[in-house]
From TrEMBL:
<feature type="region of interest" description="Disordered">
    <location>
        <begin position="33"/>
        <end position="70"/>
    </location>
</feature>
<protein>
    <recommendedName>
        <fullName>HCP-like protein</fullName>
    </recommendedName>
</protein>
<dbReference type="InterPro" id="IPR011990">
    <property type="entry name" value="TPR-like_helical_dom_sf"/>
</dbReference>
<feature type="compositionally biased region" description="Basic and acidic residues">
    <location>
        <begin position="49"/>
        <end position="59"/>
    </location>
</feature>
Length: 459
């Protein structure tokens, strides 16, 4: 079914016919049980004047009867609610009414065969918007909940979102191009990305690839250069990819220079060049490559404030109990890096003196870093609940909630030794839970160990 009239029909407009004199005067008669004033509205579905007019009388407008009409009515209601929420949350800049109007105008022009990129540019100019704002509208449209009902056609919101995004890409809007192709690149290993990528036609993806190449090679967008490098690397062109990553690094400052400064929050997340380039260099055991890898991660961490870069930068610290190591790893942990949480928790666990009940820092730390030692001693000088052990348990618990089974097993041992058997059993049962659907078990040895412990008991 053609998409062009969908928005119009869902607004309950009727085709016009020229009324007779009786019909023209009948609307002014008193209507029992209807105290609303008569209303009229005109709308031309095909944009052409056929010489036929229709008086719309709301009191006589029939409700939706066909399955498609019912679907259109549901979609209209869902759009109004979702766009209102999206406006409140700052996901779109226009009102729900204007958002619907833009979609309707776009579909009308799209159906008339005009270039979709040109249409988007005209709409942006007409409503004094940036093309990025229309990309935001397209992304929001893709998130409108689809209410599946037996006997009704599927919602067209995904198709509308697809057409708008492709049109924005053709209009040289970088966020649309990067969103589409990031989803395509990640589709083989990311279910969310796969769901996005699957709505686009192969021909549309090829068009977006051309736009990406222009952004990378002609416009110098660092994020486009990085994504283009990922595609080249996937195609086996590692040297060409490395060159693009290095160029992207050269154009990167605290935020990626010449790249979209603040993309829509619901767009696909982009990988910065330092993480990709750094990992490639880490795989090369040549000392020169290792030195360069540290430089790359340091730039990403200290200038880009990237948590993953902080995690890798910490790995270059030979002393795993130094102030620098703790600072870098804590940055990564605080940003949600699960293994970083585990590493920080172990740091605090080891920082406590081994002697039972002694509230001092481990003597091994005393000669290494006075600043760190003073901070840990301050923790111990407070109530026991504020000490390093308490911090360690907190980090282990946060990591465990994120599905990190080594942290769960550490908590099992800690609570077992503390005599809190019920708490230990809770974490032991969590170890036995299967991984999320579609994922392999990352720690099968720990699962077997947990099964044995459960059989023999924790007493």
């Amino acid at each position: 079914m053609a998409l062009r009239p969908i928005i119009y029909r869902s607004c309950n407009f009727l085709i016009k016919t020229k009324p007779c004199l009786f019909c023209q005067t009948r609307q002014f008669l008193h209507q029992r049980r209807d105290i609303r004033p008569p209303q009229s509205s005109t709308f031309n579905l095909d944009g052409k004047n056929n010489g036929k007019e229709l008086q719309r009388r709301e009191y006589s407008a029939p409700g939706p009867k066909t399955p498609q009409a019912k679907r259109n009515a549901i979609d209209t209601q869902n759009r109004a609610k979702f766009f209102d929420l999206a406006k409140t949350e700052g996901l779109i800049v226009m009102s729900p009414k204007l958002a619907d109007e833009i979609i309707a105008d776009f579909l009308s022009e799209y159906g008339d065969g005009k270039g979709s990129g040109k249409t988007v540019l005209e709409l942006a100019e007409k409503h004094r918007l940036k093309v990025t704002n229309i990309t935001e509208l397209a992304l929001a449209t893709s998130r409108i909940p689809t209410k599946g009902m037996p006997g009704l056609p599927q919602s067209h919101h995904q198709d509308i979102s697809r057409m708008l995004l492709v049109a924005c890409s053709k209009a040289k809007e970088p966020v649309a191009t990067l969103h589409i192709l990031t989803a395509v690149f990640r589709a083989p290993f990311d279910e969310a990305a796969r769901n996005i990528a699957n709505i686009f036609k192969p021909s549309e993806i090829q068009e977006c690839r051309k736009e990406l190449e222009e952004l990378a090679y002609k416009e110098g967008y660092a994020e486009a250069m990085t994504l283009q490098g990922q595609f080249l690397e996937k195609e086996g062109k590692k040297k060409d990819a490395m060159k693009l990553y290095e160029e992207a690094m050269g154009m990167a400052d605290i935020k990626l220079k010449n790249a979209p400064k603040e993309g829509p929050r619901i767009a696909m997340p982009l990988t910065p060049p330092w993480n990709i380039l750094g990992n490639l260099l880490l795989a090369n055991k040549d000392p020169t490559a290792q030195v360069r890898a540290k430089e790359v991660f340091k730039k990403g961490a200290l200038e880009g404030d990237d948590p993953l870069a902080y995690y890798h930068l910490a790995s270059f610290e030979e002393d795993k109990q130094s102030c620098n190591w703790l600072q870098y790893m804590s940055k990564a942990a605080a940003s949600g890096h699960i293994d970083a949480m585990y590493q920080v928790a172990h740091f605090y666990l080891k920082s406590q003196a081994e002697e039972q009940g002694q509230k001092n820092v481990n003597p091994d730390l005393l000669e290494k870093d006075n600043t760190l030692t003073e901070a840990l001693n301050w923790l111990n000088s407070r109530d026991r609940s504020m000490g390093p052990i308490a911090l360690a348990i907190e980090w282990f618990e946060v990591a465990a909630r994120g599905g990190h089974k080594p942290s769960m097993m550490t908590l099992v041992e800690y609570f077992r030794k503390s005599g809190k058997i019920e708490e230990a059993l809770k974490h032991l049962n969590n170890v036995l839970k299967p991984p999320p659907k579609g994922q392999k078990e990352e720690w099968p040895d720990l699962v077997r160990e947990a099964q044995i412990m459960l059989r023999h008991g924790l007493e």
